[in-house]
Batch of 3 targets.
Target 1
Amino acid sequence: MTALLIICFCLILGSLGNPQFPEQEKDPKFWNAWAQRTLKNALTLQELNKNKAKNLILFLGDGMGIPTVTAARILKGQLNGQSGEETQLEMDKFPFVSLSKTYNTNAQVPDSAGTATAYLCGVKANEGTLGVSAAAVRSQCNTTQGNEVTSILKWAKDAGKSVGIVTTTRVNHATPSAAYAHCVDRDWYSDNEMPVEALQAGCKDIARQLFENIPNIDVIMGGGRKYMFPKNMSDVEYPNILKHSGTRKDGRNLVQEWVDRMKDKKNHYVWNKTQLLSLNPNNVDYLLGLFEPGDMMYDLERNTESDPSLTEMVDVAIKILKKNPSGFYLLVEGEFEASVMVQLHICSSGPSFFSGRNVLSLIQVTALVSADCRFPQPYKQHICTMAEPSPLNEQWAVRSVP
Ligand SMILES: *[C@@H]1O[C@H](CO)[C@@H](O)[C@H](O)[C@H]1NC(C)=O
Ligand SMILES: *[C@@H]1O[C@H](CO)[C@@H](O)[C@H](O)[C@H]1NC(C)=O
Ligand SMILES: *[C@@H]1O[C@H](CO)[C@@H](O)[C@H](O)[C@H]1NC(C)=O
């Protein structure tokens, strides 16, 4: 009996400790080779459009697993007075659908940081880490160096394309961060959230990396204003609310630095909807829009006077990015309220589900995709929508214009 208890105890301890995974999973080449093999096999199955895309837009619905998509489809139909299931979302009309696995190397139910590293950088990674391989350990600054992996946003920039990030979360939140940062901890939003030892060891906060890693990201829009401003500097929109004040202990004003650095270019910093919509995209080459101190509001709670919708942000972003004759890459994230688990609860709790904010946001995203299908030719583009992080699988719908 005692032996049995000890065994159980060891098993529990083992499962609480750091999960082990094969050494080869720390090597980016392992994932790249696997992806290439999978792709090669897929290409032998049927004649696919093998033209090279000039532009790529990735719409990422955080929490948008297959059950959520199904729920959104039904809701969209019911809002139109139909029974729902027969409805088509815009992405249902895409010619290709595929599934991809974006799990974390050390966790079955993954988080946005590791999954974003998987689909943006092509390398699976540990939970909570951004733009680093699985050789990096969460929160251990000294495991960063040498383990950095780069993202499709950087590859696009290096190829001479314009690049953009639009999100309804803060711009230094896990998903967008994996596009530009190399950070062992997704919570290191500014130096205020970092341990002193990590700062002393030379690790940089994510907000700083947004401006320092990939020079001149053409379009950046979302929330996260407070992480850019000196500690205690009052917020422009909520001057009397202390928790919205600047957080930076290094006293830097990253927005002012950006404005100064870009002053010979056609650059604009905006913090509200009026400013955004009054811009003429033809006269803007670089845009920084920070519309809330933290994450932006869910669409149903949004102040429609002061904050732009995701659709409005994407519309402006595309107009700016498409001016580049070499093409562009745009990452768009719509944050749903919570994960699939919460949504399944909402589903099973009956009619209240139909007020689900997640699902309405999803409809907004699909409306976006539809809006984008009308995007003027001759721009060749691939539009992908995908879900993350959903424990079971990720769905991709791909529409490519030949
Ligand atoms: C890295 O830092 C951790 C503490 O965060 C320490 O335990 C470990 O020994 C360090 N490793 C190296 C190789 O310096
Ligand atoms: C910010 O304000 C807090 C609370 O008033 C104060 O304790 C802290 O010293 C201030 N920090 C700086 C850098 O001004
Ligand atoms: C938007 O910003 C401009 C410029 O700072 C300001 O004049 C205007 O009052 C702001 N509008 C709203 C709705 O906050």
Note: Residues 89 and 344 are 20 Å apart (CA to CA).
Target 2
Amino acid sequence: MALRIVVDRLRCIGAGNCVDAAPEVFQLDEKDISIIVNPIGAPPDTIVTAAENCPVDAIKIIDEQAGQQLYP
Ligand code: SF4
């Protein structure tokens, strides 16, 4: 499944919940803002859980093949 993961850099507060949930996918950059290091670094369910754990809903996940937004 090809997921497009988008982090709203203006909304992200660097809480790191996404990194805790899926460290192969998300990391914090030098400004403590989440970046995508590998969009296929974890199963889709794990990536969706990471997005759900974001306290400010800064992560959007789109299933490119199905043309469907998985989160939010
Ligand atoms: S969980 Fe949300 S606020 Fe925290 S680092 Fe990830 S994107 Fe940013």
Note: Strands lie at 3-7, 26-28, 34-36, 59-63, 68-71.
Target 3
Amino acid sequence: MIRQLLKRVTYSTTATYSTTATYSTTATYSPSYLKLQVGLIQRCKRHEKTDNLYISDIDINKGDTIQVCSGLVPYVPIEQMLLKRVVVITNMKSRKLKGEVSQGMILAAEKVVDEKTKTVVVEPVEPPKSSVIGERLYFDKEDRDFEPPKLKEKVWAYLQPKLGTNEDKQVVFENKTLLRGENRDDFASGPDYKIVVLGAGGVGKSSITVQFVQGVYIESYDPTIEDSYRKQIEVDGRACDLEILDTAGVAQFTAMRELYIKSGKGFLLVYSVTDENSLKELLALREQVLRIKDCETVPMVLVGNKCDLEEDRVLSIEDGVQVSQDWGLVPFYETSAMYKTNVDEAFIDVVRQIMRNEAAISVEKKILKEKHKLEQAQAQESQKSNLTYSETTTTQQYGGNENPNTQLNSAAAPPATTLTGRFTQLSGVNSSKSSSGNKCCTIM
Ligand SMILES: Nc1nc2c(ncn2[C@@H]2O[C@H](COP(=O)(O)OP(=O)(O)OP(=O)(O)O)[C@@H](O)[C@H]2O)c(=O)[nH]1
Ligand SMILES: [Mg+2]
């Protein structure tokens, strides 16, 4: 291990190295020391002995799971942890936190949203859009052959402050290299096109989705529990990575609906023109979407499927148009999954709506940023002094262990206009002095 470390470590002239493996803190380690993988949280529960820790089973390789304790309880509701794709450091030494094994760390970014109250939001970092569970993630090309050793605390302590996020929420190392998956064009967090297909049982949600994604029609009926698909398409000259969630319509499988709605950016609300009740069910579903999203302008289309079944039709086009009008002119399509009628059109419409929404949000953000800059300049002007931003150090604890070594030491807070998110990692690594506790780290 020491040899391995030596190979990768560049020492400054003042560095010392002895056979007892004492590393100088001035040693430099490349980011390839972090073995980062895409994981899927399959199970998540609260730690029984502390308030702050989740214990998650994370799939990191085709069903191989590791258990990770993370101090995310104050920041992420448990239902949002479930089925979440996360970036996990998988070469940390296994630890026990209050008796529970922690075999890795979930990478999370933190941002101070209110300097006065020191209010912090923490979000697990999203893996690259088209990455798959278990996939290794890298900061740079050159280091891909390097199999990192089990991470020593000092190595982590060196690497952690150099991690950060940029304005697009991409993970960066020393502001130079982006965290990417195998697909190097795929940024760590690109535009998010998560589309959720909702509707009553048997209306054709799966048939529409499979027809759109794979171009085939499913004749048989197999009630869905939950299926997720990915597809890349180009819309208006822009490459879009879609994640499509085909949900359950049959009542006994709909428990997760709320969770899906929370995570979705756009929605296909599907009924069947041969089933009057299926349209009625959509009214409540739309209400649920608006309530959960807490917004009137959720990207959405109304889809009347099975329009090829003219003889069995009980709902006319006018019925669909009426509902679309009642909903504030939500785009309406009559589709046939069997003949692929209007299927692409319905999905692309949702993608366009998501794009418009994101563009509006980013304009809003820009305006706010400019406003803030202006205010700052005015404040500086009025003080007529050489006011320099004073560097503040906050210390904050995440995790359930009252351990002085588990502190989050924020770096100097830059002006809010440049603060794009510091970086945090919450979970089971102890400093050499601590016997328990989860270490939290920030990066700017
Ligand atoms: N004729 C015709 N049949 C369709 C169409 N779409 C779906 N079907 C049939 O309707 C049945 C149900 O389709 P699914 O796509 O499984 O319905 P679902 O909405 O996913 O059902 P759940 O998963 O139970 O919610 C299947 O037998 C499909 O072949 C269509 O456009 N035309
Ligand atoms: Mg289905």
Note: Residues 1-25, 387-444 have pLDDT under 50 and may be disordered.
